[in-house]
Design goal:
160 residues; 8-stranded mixed beta sheet; 5 helices
Length: 160
């Protein structure tokens, strides 16, 4: 009998290891704002990267990695993807597409390996992001993450 598949941050760590990607997963207290989360981790808000699940009109998905203090620029993202319509799905749809609840989403260990689009402002930085489970985050070198995920780097965000 085989062992059950890992879940949560263990699934994230297993996927990172399989890709040869060095990550540091850590437990963290809950935060009520981006600024509070950054202060708890000793980093700048722009060093926290949101992994957003975006739905295409053909019912496939992609990940958009956007730094804190910025939001998706829909015209820029549509141009980078080469489509006319994109949207954020409902929370239950994002969970079904990735295996992760909102607030924990990461491309690492997603139940389906959707394409990854990365905002160009995170290139060259060490960033924090969700680790697949509430109460956990991870640190990773953005360039190594982009390479491991074969991510597409583009200008896809605007200041909030």
């Amino acid at each position: 009998m085989s062992a059950p598949a890992p879940t949560g941050h263990a699934r994230v760590a297993a996927d990172a290891a399989a890709r040869g990607l060095a990550i540091d997963v850590f437990a963290r207290p809950a935060a009520h704002s981006l600024a509070e989360a950054a202060a708890l981790m000793g980093i700048e808000p722009s060093d926290i990267v949101k992994s957003l699940v975006v739905k295409r009109s053909d019912d496939t998905f992609l990940f958009a990695l956007i730094p804190g203090g910025r939001s998706i620029s829909w015209p820029k993202l549509r141009a980078a993807v080469g489509v006319n319509k994109l949207q954020l799905p409902a929370a239950d749809v994002a969970l079904a597409a990735t295996g992760y609840e909102r607030g924990t989403i990461t491309p690492l260990g997603s139940t389906t390996p959707w394409p990854v689009f990365v905002d160009s402002t995170i290139v060259g930085r060490r960033v924090a992001m969700g680790a697949g489970e509430h109460g956990y985050s991870l640190f990773v070198a953005a360039d190594a993450l982009i390479a491991a995920l074969d991510g597409t780097v583009a200008d896809i965000s605007v200041p909030e």
